[in-house]
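Q: How do we represent a protein-ligand complex in a form that can be generated token by token?
A: Start from the inputs.
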Amino acid sequence: MTSVDDGVDLEQVAALLRQRHEQTVEQIRVQTAESHNLRQAARHEPGDVADAGSLISDTAQHDIVTATLTEQAERLSAALDRLRDGSFGLCGTCGQQIPLARMEIMPWATHCIPCQQRAERGR
Ligand SMILES: [Zn+2]
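Then emit the structure tokens for the protein with zinc ion bound:
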């Protein structure tokens, strides 16, 4: 059923995907807790202006990381959904099987490379 190319099979990619999703969710949890702590610190210990400034930029940095992680988690969770409904690894444009080697690197990929490149050029 699944062609074994490059020694990667769908099971492995699926396992990798679940693992990445778990890790990302865990990182979000840590980031959220940390930025919560930073905000608490900023509120309770105003300190001098320089400190307050660095606290604010730390918090901003955390927010950017959290936003990126959240986006990543959403993509991974969408990929897990596709895994369940059987459309995982199929190109959303041409319906062809996306090479598993690509799915291993980018498990959230929804398009094969040619379709992706066409879409990017068309932008
Ligand atoms: Zn395609």
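The mean pLDDT is 87. Residues 91, 93-94, 96, 111-112, 114-115 surround zinc ion (CB under 6 Å).
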